[in-house]
């Protein structure tokens, strides 16, 4: 139960202002989700055969330098990294599986928040304004960004239960609603080799999409089959390396507003999260139809 | 109900007992599920499975009738400018005019007012009789919004947003055509005589994030004066209570599966929800974890019958209780004096649950003008007041015996359980042991 | 004319000022600036006020309105005019889902499109939508009129009681127990009056009428699949 927001830039000139445009959108959703907040920002893409990992350690004084040195040697990979609060972004020349395996074995306390070529996920327990300030959201650049403010329903108010959820390369999902068949589905997906960190229903939705994409579905196909296989109420916003998508369940009780101008596409649970965007007065503003996929993608590079 | 024709050697199946056989044959004949009133009839762990540890040597009892034992409770202290003070922590649960006769509603109001407690409207709006006779009236805000209007909202002493009830969590209402008389139809804007189906979700919001906005709207309309209650049927109580607090409730009402209804599917009444006993510790744990126990008040309902039940609810952490079925029985529902009348409609005193048919011989769950006359609202009010006084006195007696000068000073540590099931659900030790199943070893 | 700016005063301040007019009206004309999608603006009014809201509103704008006349110069969020009793609300832009939910009376005019569940459980209100309405509109509608000048989404009028629905464009599908009905002279007259009251220029003859087949009014075993 939550607030969700997304901003996809059509005009690359706005890239340097992405974080500044997005911060008030996230903060406007505080009442819908006072427990935790987070966002997935896309940009600063690493070259082919490289990946980028967002890593978190509970200790703000954790020695990332030492971990980076070990990773560089043991994975014999080129590596650069930077730190943002208690999160670090590692860029390295490696594939997803070997990197995940190495961190799982050698850095058990480190949580992998995201893996991809473009995505960075930053999330914490606390109010959206605190999370924005902690990670200096307003100064961030990128191509698109998806955020979430959480009112925890059945799973705990923890870092692990915070959104966005990422279970595959550059994929992330935020969710407003409540799924009603996620437990059985999680078991089925585990048998398919998808791993889960929490009991959260939204993580199952993200894992489901990862599985469908792995099986060769396009994003649109994956979302359409989600309409059949996921039961319950949901509005999802999904981020991929090249774009973002919005979908609501067939009953469509949970709110969603879309706005589009020549410069951007924006999504929010409530219109009030869009009011700070430039040119919103003249934007095309509408509510997504039930059981309909809305997707924006830039041509893959 | 006689077993006179059963001889040794005739063995009834435990699986296909006579009730089951009758239900299969009824279903085959009619093609519709069984609809009835009342609450769950199956046996579930209940307050009878708990006992108090009266004071003796290690604790000192209070003198009955002389040494004070407070029973008054203030509800709605979190945000409301005008919280409700009730003199006894036993309130009357929401029951609709439509399900009940106007006389029955008036009697409940009179009885509750006489002892300084509150009564509650139901699905179908507020009647002038009820408002006039109730010194403290809680106005239910339900998915159907039958008869819902801002004038009555502003007349209410509190607003109860109903998400569900113990008899049918997740289900809507049902009022069969026989009870949609001219007056009921007019109040609900329905054609006379239709089977009225009530929605299971509210029409204009879904989920706790939307509920937070709805609560704000109700506060805005009433200028933040009166408390806002949230009522849920007991299922995932721990989570529901936390979400109600997050959404901004002043008071949370948790209705266990034994809670009654005017009409719903039997399969719903018997197979959905958790016992009241199991719901209270979950609710209290949720409130405690949020630092909100006693700040957001907890009202518990579902199968409360006597002062011992009241005291046990309080000991487990409730701030007050609500009674529904018990209040109707106090008014005369299922009274033996109507035995021949019950027989005429295929039932018997002690078994009658067809509230939805509107033929209640006791004149309570009916809109029939002749039957309704059988219930005198003044006499009925007196019976309700008497019964509420007995509940209060009984609860006080037990509290004093445990050495408490306030009902709310009763604690889980004053209780033990007779059965392993009750011990696990109520989270109190099995009598004579220190064992709480699932908590300690 | 009194103006309240939501950037400098809260929604609470606004609503209290409007409610203070209920016992005695001292200021009939009101203007609300910078609503910025905030919730519960101008709800619970109980006086013959005229309120212009200069922008988009959030949930439940004009909720439970009595007597007052609201104009939203923008889009309205979820549940605009929910449970309205009388007066009028005009939305210049689009309305989100559950517009006019359970409303008992008055007039709700939406100049743009309305989302899902427009007029859900309506109990006597008149709703005129210049554009389209979303799915499940008029679900369990009890009384009043819903006029749609554009198209209607899936399951229009599902489980309908006695609302009269008029649609000019396409109906994607009718809900259970909702059927097309004959348009008689009295219905053309009703529509004409609704257009006059709402200031909308349409020809009643271009509309089709839908209403309840009344087959679900009392349970019959042969209808069980419709429940």
Kindly describe this structure:
The longest helix of chain A is centred in the last third of the chain and has 14 residues, at 201-214. Chain A is built from seven helices and 16 strands. In chain A, helix 5 runs parallel beside helix 6 and helix 6 crosses helix 7 (219-229). With 301 residues, chain A is an alpha+beta fold. Chain B has one domain (35-408): Aldolase class I (TIM Barrel). Helix content of chain B is 34%, strand content 12%. In chain B, the strands form five sheets. In chain B, strands 5-15-14-12-11-8-7-6 form an eight-stranded parallel beta sheet. A two-stranded antiparallel sheet of chain B has the order 1-13. In chain B, helix 4 links the parallel strand 7 (137-141) and strand 8 (158-162). Chain C has a domain at 113-226. Chain C is of the alpha/beta class. The longest helix of chain C has 14 residues, at 185-198. Classes of the chains: A alpha+beta (301), B alpha/beta (441), C alpha/beta (227). The interface between B and C is large, with 33 and 44 residues. Chain C: InterPro entries: Glu_synth_asu_C_sf, Glu_synth_lsu_3. Chain C: One of its GO terms (molecular function) is oxidoreductase activity. Chain C: This is Protein glxC. Chain A: InterPro entries: GATase_2_dom (IPR017932), Ntn_hydrolases_N (IPR029055).
Question: What is the secondary structure topology, with strand pairs?
Answer:
The complex is a heterotrimer of chains A (301), B (441) and C (227).
Chain A: E1 2-9, H1 18-27, E2 36-42, E3 51-56, H2 64-74, E4 79-84, E5 87-92, H3 96-106, E6 111-116, E7 119-125, H4 128-134, E8 144-150, E9 165-168, E10 171-179, H5 182-191, H6 201-214, H7 219-229, E11 232-239, E12 243-248, E13 257-260, E14 264-268, E15 284-286, E16 294-297
Antiparallel strand pairs in A: 1-8, 1-14, 2-7, 2-8, 3-5, 3-6, 4-5, 9-10, 10-11, 11-12, 12-16, 13-14, 13-15
Chain B: H1 18-30, E1 35-36, E2 50-52, E3 73-75, E4 84-86, E5 90-92, H2 102-114, E6 119-120, H3 128-133, E7 137-141, H4 150-155, E8 158-162, E9 174-175, H5 182-188, E10 196-197, H6 208-221, E11 228-233, H7 237-247, E12 251-255, E13 264-265, H8 266-271, H9 276-289, E14 297-301, H10 307-316, E15 320-323, H11 325-331, H12 339-344, H13 369-372, H14 377-401, E16 415-417, H15 420-426
Parallel strand pairs in B: 5-15, 6-7, 7-8, 8-11, 11-12, 12-14, 14-15
Antiparallel strand pairs in B: 1-13, 2-16, 3-4, 9-10
Helix pairs in contact in B: 2-14, 6-7, 7-9, 9-15, 10-14
Chain C: E1 2-5, H1 11-19, E2 29-33, E3 50-54, E4 69-72, E5 88-91, E6 107-110, E7 123-129, E8 143-148, E9 164-167, E10 178-181, H2 185-198, E11 208-212
Parallel strand pairs in C: 1-2, 2-3, 3-4, 4-5, 5-6, 6-7, 7-8, 8-9
Antiparallel strand pairs in C: 9-11, 10-11
């Amino acid at each position: 139960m939550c607030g969700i927001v997304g901003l996809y830039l059509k005009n690359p000139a706005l890239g340097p202002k992405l974080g500044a445009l997005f911060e008030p959108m996230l903060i406007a959703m505080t009442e819908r989700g006072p427990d935790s907040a987070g966002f997935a920002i896309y940009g600063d893409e690493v070259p082919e055969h490289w990946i980028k990992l967002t890593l978190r350690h509970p200790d703000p004084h954790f020695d990332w330098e030492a971990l980076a040195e070990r990773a560089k040697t043991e994975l014999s990979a080129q590596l650069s990294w930077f730190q943002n609060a208690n999160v670090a972004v590692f860029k390295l020349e490696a594939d997803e599986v070997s990197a995940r395996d190495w961190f799982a074995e050698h850095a058990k306390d480190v949580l992998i928040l995201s893996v991809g070529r473009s995505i960075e996920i930053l999330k914490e327990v606390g109010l959206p304004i605190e999370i924005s300030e902690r990670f200096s959201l307003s100064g961030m650049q990128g191509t698109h960004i998806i955020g979430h403010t959480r009112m925890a329903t059945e799973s705990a108010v923890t870092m692990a239960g915070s959104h966005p959820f990422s279970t595959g390369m550059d994929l992330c999902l935020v969710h407003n609603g409540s799924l009603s068949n996620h437990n059985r589905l999680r078991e089925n997906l585990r048998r398919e080799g998808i791993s889960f960190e929490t009991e959260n229903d939204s993580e199952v939705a993200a894992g489901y999409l990862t599985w469908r994409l792995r099986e060769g579905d396009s994003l649109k196909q994956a979302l359409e089959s989600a309409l059949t296989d996921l039961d319950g109420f949901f509005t999802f916003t999904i981020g991929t390396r090249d774009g973002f998508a919005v979908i609501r369940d067939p009953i469509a009780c949970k709110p969603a507003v879309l706005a589009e101008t020549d410069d951007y596409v924006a999504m929010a649970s409530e219109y009030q999260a869009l009011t700070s965007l430039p040119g919103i007065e003249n934007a095309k503003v509408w509510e997504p139809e039930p059981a309909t996929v809305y997707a924006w993608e830039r041509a893959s590079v | 109900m006689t077993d006179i024709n059963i001889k040794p050697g005739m063995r009834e199946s435990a699986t296909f007992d006579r009730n089951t056989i009758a239900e299969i044959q009824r279903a085959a004949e009619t093609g519709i599920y069984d609809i009835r009133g009342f609450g769950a009839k199956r046996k579930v762990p209940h307050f009878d499975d708990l006992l108090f540890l009266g004071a003796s040597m290690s604790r000192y009892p209070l003198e009955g009738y002389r040494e004070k034992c407070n029973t008054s409770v203030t509800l709605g202290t979190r945000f409301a400018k005008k919280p409700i003070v009730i003199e006894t922590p036993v309130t009357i649960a929401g029951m609709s005019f439509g399900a009940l006769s106007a006389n029955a509603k008036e009697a409940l109001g009179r009885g509750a007012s006489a002892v300084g407690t509150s009564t509650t409207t139901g699905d179908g709006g507020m009647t002038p009789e009820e408002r006039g006779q109730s010194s403290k009236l809680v106005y239910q805000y339900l998915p159907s919004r039958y008869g819902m209007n801002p004038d009555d909202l502003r007349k209410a002493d509190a607003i109860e947003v109903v998400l569900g009830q113990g008899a049918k969590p997740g289900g809507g209402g049902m009022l069969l055509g026989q009870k949609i008389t001219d007056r009921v139809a007019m109040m609900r804007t329905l054609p006379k005589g239709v089977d009225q189906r009530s929605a299971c979700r509210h029409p204009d919001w879904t989920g706790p994030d939307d509920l937070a906005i709805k609560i704000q709207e109700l506060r805005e309309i009433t200028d933040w004066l009166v408390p806002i209650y949230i009522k849920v049927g007991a299922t995932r109580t721990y989570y529901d209570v936390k979400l109600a607090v997050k959404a901004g409730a002043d008071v949370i009402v948790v209705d266990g599966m034994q809670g009654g209804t005017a009409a719903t599917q039997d399969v719903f009444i018997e197979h959905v929800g958790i016992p009241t006993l199991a719901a209270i510790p979950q609710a209290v744990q949720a409130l405690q974890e949020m630092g909100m126990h006693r700040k957001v008040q907890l009202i518990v309902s579902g199968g409360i019958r006597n002062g011992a039940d009241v005291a046990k609810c309080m000991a487990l952490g409730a701030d007050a209780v609500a009674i529904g079925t018990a209040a109707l029985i106090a008014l005369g529902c299922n009274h033996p004096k109507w035995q021949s009348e019950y027989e005429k409609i295929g039932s018997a005193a002690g078994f009658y649950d067809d509230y939805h048919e509107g033929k209640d011989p006791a004149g309570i769950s009916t809109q029939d003008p002749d039957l309704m006359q059988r219930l005198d609202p003044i006499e009925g009010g007196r019976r309700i007041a008497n019964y509420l006084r007995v509940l209060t006195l009984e609860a006080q007696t037990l509290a004093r015996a445990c050495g408490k000068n306030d009902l709310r000073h009763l604690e889980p540590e004053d209780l033990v359980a007779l059965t392993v099931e009750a011990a696990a659900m109520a989270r109190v030790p099995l009598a004579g042991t220190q064992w709480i199943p699932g908590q300690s070893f | 004319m009194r103006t309240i700016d939501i950037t400098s005063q809260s929604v609470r301040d606004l609503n209290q000022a409007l409610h203070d007019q209920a016992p005695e009206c001292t200021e009939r004309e009101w203007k609300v600036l910078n609503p910025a999608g905030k919730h519960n603006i101008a709800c619970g009014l109980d006086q013959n006020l005229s309120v212009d809201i200069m922008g988009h509103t959030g949930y439940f704008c004009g909720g439970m309105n009595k007597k007052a006349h609201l104009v939203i110069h923008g889009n309205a969020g979820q549940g605009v005019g929910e449970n309205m009793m009388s007066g009028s609300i005009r939305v210049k832009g689009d309305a989100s889902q559950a517009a006019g939910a359970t409303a008992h009376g008055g007039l709700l005019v939406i100049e743009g499109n309305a989302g899902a569940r427009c007029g859900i459980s309506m109990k006597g209100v008149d709703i005129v939508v210049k554009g389209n309405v979303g799915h499940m509109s008029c679900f369990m509608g009890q009384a009043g009129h819903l006029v749609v000048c554009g198209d209607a989404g899936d399951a229009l009028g599902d489980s309908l009681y006695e609302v009269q629905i008029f649609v000019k464009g396409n109906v994607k599908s009718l809900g259970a127990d909702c059927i097309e009905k004959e348009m008689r002279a009295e219905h053309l007259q009703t529509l004409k009056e609704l257009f006059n009251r709402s200031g909308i220029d349409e020809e009643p003859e271009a509309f089709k009428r839908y209403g309840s087949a009344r087959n679900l009014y009392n349970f019959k075993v042969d209808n069980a699949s419709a429940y």
